């Protein structure tokens, strides 16, 4: 009431009205001021309400509540290969999606330890967990049963659940193209291949590469050495050296380190990298590389989870999706070779032709895919035999 009395007095005095004026005049002015104040307050409150509603409706994407996403890597992010390519995809996603908070765990062995790590990530509130190695398949499925509200995405596996999907790319397509490059480059007609484990994925890659080699050089052979490692720089480089000693003048690899490429450079020979553009590590040797581009897929997957449109699919993306490709060519690759690669790549991108189109023979010369037929996905996903032109055997597990 004191504030009200003061305010009214000030208003009255500003209009030249003295305290000594009649009581009626004072009351009249008092009520006029109060009514004016009430109307003004109502207008202000109404205006504020409208502004708040507009602000909420125009809330930018970046201001939404953050979603926590985790990645499990089998090697260090500095491996210049498999784990590095996934982490580049993660960084791309963070750049494109400011409302995503990510975490990583590096160098996680496949097996029981992986299950422990995946469990901890789920307990920390991560809503999406990407497990990026084949050996994480069963641990991922086991943990997913305990956390039905978390989405799990397993790379290169084949088991799914209500909250588990799988993802991979048709790397055999760029493998074929890099085989063309190697087949045109070799002078000894012996190409070495440093291979990790005898899984269908690795066998499929060796076969696709060999088909590419022999499409331009039917006399060439691809000699395979197994390391039973994904990430072991010393062992993988030594395997490359053994192949060079056997007469190979070009090396290819399915490993997570640039060790074989460095062995080729040390010997003055050539190589075809894998996972990422390995020319940075062996610029005098690397002809090209078969590379991964995970970023757009990670963005698409996280958005689907946020929008509640995610499904537990088994994604196996082709080169036309951009998830796999070949890197730029080294200066030692001829224009003729580049042209041959471009022609085959165009057919693959247009889906006019694919790598495992018959006739395809095994090492014994038996026709496994008849002429005019295309090997179905289910057979490619369980490859357990080598094509003609491969020098090596597939160890029994």
| Helical run tally | 12
Assign the CATH class of the largest domain: Alpha Beta
Helix residue percentage: 40-55%
- CATH architectural grouping of the largest domain: 3-Layer(aba) Sandwich
Secondary-structure element pattern, one letter each: HHEHEHEHEEHEHEHEHEEHEEHEEHE
The count of strands amounts to 15
Main sheet characteristics: 7 strands, mixed
Terminus-to-terminus distance: 91 Å
Structural class: alpha/beta
Order of strands across the main sheet = 12-10-9-8-6-7-15
CATH topology of the largest domain: Rossmann fold
Radius of gyration over all CA atoms, rounded: 33 Å
Low-confidence segments, ≥5 residues, pLDDT <50? 1-63
Strand content: 15-25%
Q: How many independent structural domains?
A: 3
Average pLDDT confidence is 88
């Amino acid at each position: 009431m004191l504030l009200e009395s003061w305010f009214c007095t000030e208003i009255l005095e500003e209009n030249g009205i003295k305290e000594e004026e009649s009581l009626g005049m004072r009351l009249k002015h008092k009520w006029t001021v109060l009514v004016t104040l009430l109307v003004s307050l109502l207008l202000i409150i109404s205006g504020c309400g409208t502004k708040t509603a507009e602000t909420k409706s125009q809330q930018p994407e970046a201001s939404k509540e953050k979603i926590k996403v985790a990645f499990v890597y089998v090697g260090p992010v500095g491996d210049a290969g498999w784990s590095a390519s996934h982490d580049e995809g993660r960084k791309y996603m963070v750049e494109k999606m400011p409302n995503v908070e990510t975490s990583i765990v590096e160098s996680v062995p496949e097996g029981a330890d992986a299950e422990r790590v995946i469990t901890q990530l789920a307990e920390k509130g991560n809503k999406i967990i990407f497990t990026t190695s084949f050996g994480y398949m069963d641990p991922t499925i086991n943990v997913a049963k305990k956390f039905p509200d978390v989405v799990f995405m397993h790379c290169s596996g084949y088991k799914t659940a209500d909250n588990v999907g799988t993802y991979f790319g048709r790397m055999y397509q760029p493998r074929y193209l890099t085989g063309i490059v190697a087949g045109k480059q070799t002078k000894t007609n012996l190409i070495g291949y440093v291979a990790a484990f005898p899984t269908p994925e690795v066998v499929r890659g060796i076969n696709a590469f060999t088909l590419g080699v022999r499409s331009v050089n039917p006399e060439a052979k691809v000699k395979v050495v197994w390391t039973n490692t994904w990430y072991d720089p010393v062992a993988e480089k030594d395997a490359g050296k053994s192949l060079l000693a056997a007469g190979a003048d070009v090396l290819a690899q399915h490993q997570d380190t640039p060790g074989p490429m460095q062995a080729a450079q040390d010997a003055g020979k050539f190589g075809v990298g894998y996972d990422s553009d390995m020319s940075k590590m062996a610029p005098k040797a690397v002809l090209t590389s078969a590379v991964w581009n995970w970023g757009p897929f990670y963005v698409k997957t996280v958005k689907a989870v946020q929008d509640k449109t995610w499904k537990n699919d088994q994604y196996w993306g082709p080169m036309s999706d951009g998830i796999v490709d070949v890197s730029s060519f080294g200066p030692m690759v001829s224009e003729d070779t580049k042209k041959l690669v471009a022609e085959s790549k165009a057919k693959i991108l247009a889906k006019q032709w694919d790598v495992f189109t018959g006739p395809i023979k095994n090492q014994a010369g038996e026709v496994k895919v008849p002429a005019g037929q295309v090997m179905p996905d289910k057979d490619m996903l369980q490859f357990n035999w080598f094509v003609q032109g491969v020098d090596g055997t597939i160890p029994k597990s």
